[in-house]
Amino acid sequence: MTNQEMLISYINKLTEDEISSLLEAASLMLETKEPAEKPPCPYCGCGKVIRYGHACQKQRFLCKICGRTFVPTTNTVMANSHFPASVWKEMVKDTLHGNAIDFSAKRLGIFHQAAFDMRHKILLALQELPEVTDACLGEVSEFDETFVLDCYKGRKLDSTVARTARKHGAKAQKRGISNEYICICTGIQRKGDAIAATVNRAKPSAGELIRIFDGHIADGTLALCDGLRSYHAFPGIADCTVKDCNNQRSEESCFYHLNTVNGFHSFIKKRYNFYRGVASKYINRYNALFSAAYRNAEAMVRRLTEAVLTVTGVNYYHSNKDIRTVRLVAI
Ligand SMILES: [Zn+2]
Fold first, then answer.
1. pTM of the predicted model as reported, rounded to 2 decimal places
2. Nearest to 269 by CA among 196, 165, 163
3. Which tens digits make up the pLDDT trace of 212-237?
4. Residues whose CB is under 5 A from ligand 1 (ion)?
5. Which CATH superfamily is domain 135-295 in?
6. Ligand 1 centroid from CA 210, angstroms
7. Distance 313 CA to ligand 1 centre (A)
8. Domain coordinates of the chain in residue numbers?
9. Angle between the N-to-C axes of helices 85-96 and 16-32, in degrees from 0 to 180, rounded to the nearest 10
10. Residue 60 Cα, ligand 1 centroid: separation in angstroms?
């Protein structure tokens, strides 16, 4: 038996708690260890790099091909950050598990603004992960919209906002669905991917639905919806069938229903209310988070941690300025 096999057979005897504390200790060891291998150049991808002194207490490398220098965090989400990888890892976990920014700030002993910037850099990277950009709905998928109250968190309401500030919690001032709400269009495959996106306050037009779902519906999909005419534009973007689930005969309603998408809506509203709303201009960043966290939060924590911490050949870095300017929703 090799050392590795012996170790694995020993680990097999441990309890779940013991394994997770072992993993934590191992990841700490990895963090403090100097990288044994030289990372590939984040600019040209070649492996011909040499150690080239230190910068910001990190090993610096020089690429022999393109002549540029870099540190192990260049082009990762945590580039230019003073916080160690352990803090970023915890922030990724908190983000996917739906914890509030203030909760993370308190837990990690950092300022609110620092936690806010980290949260949004993580969300911007999440929006760019192939798992999110290439999400595809197929087989039997359900489509519907849900409405959440708009929110201007973090700023004073001025003349550009058509309502006064809400007092005593998140309650609409007008009855029914009004312009105080913003619409989140959602689609979810039964036992598959989920997509959520906002383009407008009102119910979506055919053009808006095409903008959201073009390239994200597989051929042969059965698209179930609630009778909104706009969904009948789907056959224009994929070879699919659209079926209204309203007025089903009772024996058919056990298959033609929207329970899956309604479950997704409950999840979105629960998270949204727990945050006490998110600023409406950032809603699509959070829509991406809701879609990614709904069914496989743990897998996404692992995937995002990798994108945040390691040079992957893709530039996931965003500056603090990007947080205020990139992919905002103006409605
Ligand atoms: Zn290079």
1. 0.83
2. 196
3. 999 999 999 999 999 899 999 999 99
4. 41, 43-44, 63, 65-66
5. Ribonuclease H-like superfamily/Ribonuclease H (3.30.420.10)
6. 40
7. 11
8. 135-295
9. 140
10. 13
